[in-house]
Amino acid sequence: MRLVTPQQMRRLEELSDQNGVSYAQLMEHAGQQLSIFLLRQIRQKKGGKILFLCGNGNNGGDCFVAARLLSSQGVPVSVGLLCGIPKTILAYSMYKQLGDIPVLSSIAQIKEAIGIADFVVDGVFGTGFHGTLRPEQAELFALASSRFCIGVDIPSGGNAETGAVVPGTMRCRMTVSFGACKFGMVQYPLKTYCGEILVADIGIPESAYQQIDYPMAGITERMIANFLPSRQPDSHKGQFGKLLCITGSERMPGAAVMSAAAALRCGVGLMRLAVPRSVIAAMCARYPEPMYLPMQTDEKGFALSANGNMLLEEMAKSTAVLIGCGLGETEETKALVTRILQEATCPVILDADGINCVTGCIDIIKEVKVPLILTPHPAEMARLLHCTVAAVQSDRMEQAGSFAREHGVTLVLKGAGTIVATPEGAFVNSTGNSGMSKGGSGDVLAGMLASLVAQGIPPTNAACMAVFLHGKAGDCAAEHLSEQAMLPTDLIGELPGLFLKLEQRRHSD
Ligand SMILES: NC(=O)C1=CN([C@@H]2O[C@H](COP(=O)(O)OP(=O)(O)OC[C@H]3O[C@@H](n4cnc5c(N)ncnc54)[C@H](OP(=O)(O)O)[C@@H]3O)[C@@H](O)[C@H]2O)[C@@H](O)CC1
Ligand SMILES: Nc1ncnc2c1ncn2[C@@H]1O[C@H](COP(=O)(O)OP(=O)(O)O)[C@@H](O)[C@H]1O
Ligand SMILES: [K+]
User: Fold this and answer.
1) Which ligand is closest in space to the CA of residue 489?
2) Which residue, 348, 333, 326, is CA-closest to 440?
3) Number of helices and strands in the chain (H, E)
4) Is 2-213 a CATH 3.40.50.10260 domain?
5) Coil, strand, or helix at residue 84?
6) N or C: which end of the chain has fewer CB within 10 A?
7) From the CB of residue 251, how many other CB atoms can be counted at a distance below 10 Å?
8) Which CATH number fits domain 221-225+233-508: 3.40.1190.20, 3.30.9.10, 3.40.50.620, 3.30.530.20?
9) Among 127, 133, 201, residue to substitute to test ligand 1 (most atoms within 8 Å of Cβ)
């Protein structure tokens, strides 16, 4: 699913206009698509009165077209003007074609109409919304939201660029978005205001989409199914990658266990697991598959930089390195992480404390000569950028995309609606649930990602595949264990079922 910012949408409309599909035709198509959708809804409900709530911009214009088309087919429609007569030439010309459709402009009339409508269509504000809602608007929106409300392009009050909402934003059961889904609609909190999202084709030429800078898309199962490495019947372990994990400390051995277990379940051929010597016996009892590399530690159980030479030798034999989960943030681990990055000979996945260790010397990232993937959660991202978590969360795509472009890395900004940003474009995940908001879920993701990269899947593809499957594993776990009780380790238990499905899908394709 394509995702666009409001600026990109405006550029698409402009390119479309230059390529023979005018602005007026786009609006006519948008209204047509909306009317087709509404007709389907009416048929399912066996009848229904439709009230279009319209603002004075082009979002209202789409509604005038739909109202005219539906009315010509005998559907009882009315229009409520919330911001007066349309301001744009386009919307005004559509408004003038309403004919004898009832137009309500007093608040009292509109309130009454909302009360008796079967469907309320929200065409008050689209991508041109800014500022806040006036109290009387918020009150009307609350009333409309209590009905079966259908969003036009985006719920009014939502920010199509960031996913922010203002108090009183319209709550829609379904939203019909034109040309492409707006990025903000797949981020929180706006996502929860959209209901089911449908994208309507309004005739923007394919060539226009191809000219958009920094394209974005939602991650789908279909997309990631093709990334699975093929397994030939005569294959051997050396063909499925060699992963070096530099993880864990005496205080956080679990992070090493979870990332390693997840990596093993994602199919890597060989794993070397560098962890503090003291935790190896317990780990090996649980997971005998990896080759264990004992690390020397300080008196608190955190790895020393003196392990560097041994780790570099092991890295030379590896196809990917995962560093950071549970490693701890000390002067010694900082020196170790820095050295691994500076001398890396294969792709590196930098997670958790691996990220924390470089926040003071972020420019070294630009000098890394191998593909680098960072997997920060919002607080780690804020540390990287030396800003607040709120600043990260208020504009996730801008923060992730700018970082990826500036540093030439793949950046996985975690949290509901995880973003995989690369220097060329970005992907957004929609799987997962709040049952995953538990310490350890990130370690599982890091292990999965590292395993896929080690197997030779290009970093961006691997990141999309890992975040999609990680969230899907969370959704499966929640189904039979509940969001409340499920654990990060349960995600690992779901992986075999998910890979089985992907393999079956590949065999049937
Ligand atoms: N262009 C095309 O060909 C196509 C466009 N399409 C449709 O156009 C939509 C974008 O239309 P748009 O740019 O006119 O903006 P829209 O969202 O209607 O709102 C702007 C109006 O609201 C006002 N306003 C804003 N905030 C406000 C507030 N807090 N309180 C009060 N007023 C406020 C704002 O006022 P102003 O900025 O002037 O102060 C302005 O008058 C898009 O979402 C899609 O539905 C489709 O048909 C496809 C083809
Ligand atoms: N509400 C949610 N919806 C979807 N995914 C979530 C949600 N909460 C957490 N996750 C996912 O779980 C993981 C948590 O990672 P992180 O915060 O690094 O955990 P930890 O470091 O404790 O292992 C991320 O991949 C994140 O996207
Ligand atoms: K709207």
Assistant:
1) 2
2) 326
3) 21, 19
4) yes
5) coil
6) C
7) 13
8) 3.40.1190.20
9) 127
Beta carbons within 10 angstroms of residue 177's beta carbon = 26
Q: Quote the crossing angle between the two packed helices 253-265 and 441-454, to the nearest 10°.
A: 40
- The token pair that represents 170 in the structure block: 């319209």
Q: What is the pLDDT of residues 377-426, one digit of tens each?
A: 999 999 999 999 999 999 999 999 999 999 999 999 999 999 999 999 99
Ligand positioned closest to the Cα atom of 179: 1
Q: What is the pLDDT of residues 445-484, one digit of tens each?
A: 999 999 999 999 999 999 999 999 999 999 999 999 999 9
Atom of ligand 1 nearest to the CA of 56: 41
Q: Out of 27, 53, 129, give the residue to mutate to test ligand 1, the one with the largest number of ligand atoms within 8 Å of its CB.
A: 129
Phi and psi at residue 295, in whole multiples of 5°? Answer: -105, 140
Report the Cα–Cα distance between both ends of the chain, in Å, rounded: 21
Alpha-carbon separation of residue 494 from 119, 453, 481 (angstroms)? 41, 20, 11
* Cβ pair 396, 187 in contact under 8 A: yes
Question: Based on C-alpha coordinates, what's the Rg of the chain?
Answer: 26
Nearest CA residue ID for atom 27, ligand 2: 415
Q: What is the ipTM of this complex?
A: 0.91
CA of 195 to the centre of ligand 1 (A): 21
417 is an annotated ligand-binding site residue: yes
**Distance of CA 436 from the midpoint of ligand 2 (Å):** 5
Q: At how many degrees (to 10) do helices 331-342 and 308-315 cross?
A: 30
Tell which residue, 428, 324, 416, 414, has the closest CA to residue 378. Answer: 414
